[in-house]
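Per your request, structure below.
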């Protein structure tokens, strides 16, 4: 591999990890406030009360050789699928996050420039800056929600909630900053970076 491909792979890895921590931060924020949202009267009108089932007693059947082979096959398939998913998740999150932020940047850039025609170099610079700002906003919003919203109804300690939110925010911001610095130092176009 040549130097440019290695540099691009490193910056893309940093970007993918940044998106992963940003997603974890959004999931943390959602997990904290989802029970509050689900306990509202509006949501309760759509949920039915569970009925208690009548227990049925039955004798367990003997496990046949065919059943053991079936269970073992399903277990192996599940293990292989889990390994595949664990390997693919960071790159998928990175590509999806990149696609979303790039589309938002491409849609907002004409509005920011008031539909003026820009030279290609200036357009790339503005796009890279706006993309970086978009990533920072995506990292700051969930932490702001956690920090400023009154979380009396959350069953966890406020310190734990803020520490987990701060750690994920710091990691995602640091990874995006490292990605931007490396892309600038190694002369990587913004379209090549996640």
């Amino acid at each position: 591999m040549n130097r440019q491909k290695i540099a691009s792979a490193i910056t893309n890895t940093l970007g993918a990890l940044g998106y992963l921590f940003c997603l974890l931060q959004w999931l943390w924020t959602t997990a904290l406030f989802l029970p509050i949202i689900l306990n509202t009267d509006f949501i309760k009108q759509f949920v039915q009360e569970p009925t208690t089932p009548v227990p049925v007693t039955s004798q367990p059947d003997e496990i046949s050789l065919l059943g053991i082979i079936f269970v073992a096959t399903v277990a192996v398939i599940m293990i292989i699928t889990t390994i595949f998913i664990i390997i693919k998740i960071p790159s998928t999150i990175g590509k999806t996050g990149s696609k979303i932020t790039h589309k938002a940047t491409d849609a907002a850039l004409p509005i920011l420039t008031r539909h003026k025609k820009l030279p290609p170099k200036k357009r790339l610079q503005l796009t890279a800056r706006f993309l970086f700002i978009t990533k920072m906003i995506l990292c700051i919003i969930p932490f702001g929600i956690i920090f400023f919203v009154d979380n009396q109804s959350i069953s966890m300690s406020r310190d734990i909630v803020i520490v987990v939110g701060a750690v994920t925010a710091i990691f995602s911001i640091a990874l995006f900053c490292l990605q931007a610095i490396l892309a600038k130092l190694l002369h990587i176009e913004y379209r090549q970076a996640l």
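The radius of gyration is 24 Å.

Regards,
D.
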